Amino acid sequence: MDKIEIKSSGGDLVLSKSTGEWKTVSPVDYMANTELVNKAISSLKNFNIESIISTNPAKKDTYGFNENNQAEISVYEGGNLKGKFLMGNAAVGTSSYIKKMDSDNIYITDALERTDFVKPDLNEWREKNIVSIPKQSVNSIEFISPEETFTVSKDASGKYFVGTDSVTNAFDGILNLLENFQTTNFADTLINDESAFKNIINIDNGNKNQIKFLMIPTTPVKYYVKVEGDKQIYELEDGAAKNLLKTKKDITGK
């Protein structure tokens, strides 16, 4: 398989492996969540037809085959369509109801879960990891905000300090977050004014990584996040952003 199309009332999705790794190419061009794609592929490779449930076209709504509920699954190999079917309601356990496009026969499957293909939000298919920086590789982090600028640096013994002040557990929490820093959501928008991002974190781990934050005064508050070299604007909940946006007092206790 090198392409999967999923059409449902929630929107149309195209997953493609044309570049050697799975991406969502529609409705947006972005890295796909490999774990979710692999689970869908495994289901497509391994599911079985348990039995025929109905041959009566009047019963199709009972099993979820209507425009508001059904999903159309198309599978491609080498750019060629290899198979297509409709998926209706979920059944018991890992089973679902499916039917061919041009048939009234409705089947129940084993090891084919509806939730592997139909998501409440198409953004669930997108890779949510922003950066992954091993904590032991971090040499220093500079925190810049409108109120203050300070740097946490590692000494020869591997301990972190702000000047001569040692750090609290709050800084260890930041290092843990940066090892698997994930977004809450995606903001598919353009922000041309880079100076609007008032809070900045510069991370030196042998490479230079810069993460910028822009507070959006919605209710509840959220933050847009931008990483240097990445055009995507990420969206974080207020609490998630503030786990990284610490003050000098938060980090040193002084």
Describe the protein's architecture and organization.
Helix content is 13%, strand content 40%. It has 4 helices and 20 strands. It has helices at residues 34-46, 169-179, 238-242, 248-252; strands at residues 3-8, 11-16, 23-26, 30-31, 48-54, 71-77, 80-90, 96-99, 106-110, 129-131, 140-144, 149-154, 160-162, 165-166, 181-182, 185-187, 199-204, 208-216, 222-227, 233-237. The strands form 3 sheets. It has a 9-stranded antiparallel sheet, covered by helices on one side. Strand 6 (71-77) and strand 7 (80-90) form a beta hairpin.
Nearest-integer average pLDDT: 95
From the alpha-carbon coordinates, what is the Rg to the nearest angstrom?
A: 24 Å
Quote the beta fraction: 35-45%
Number of beta-strand segments: 20
Strand order of the largest sheet: 4-3-2-1-6-7-8-9-5
Query: What about the largest sheet?
Result: 9 strands, antiparallel
The chain-level structural class is mainly beta
The first-to-last residue Cα distance is 57 Å
Show unreliable segments: none
| H-E string | EEEEHEEEEEEEEEEHEEEEEEHH
Roughly what percent helix? Answer: 10-25%
Q: How would the global form be characterised?
A: elongated
The number of helices is 4
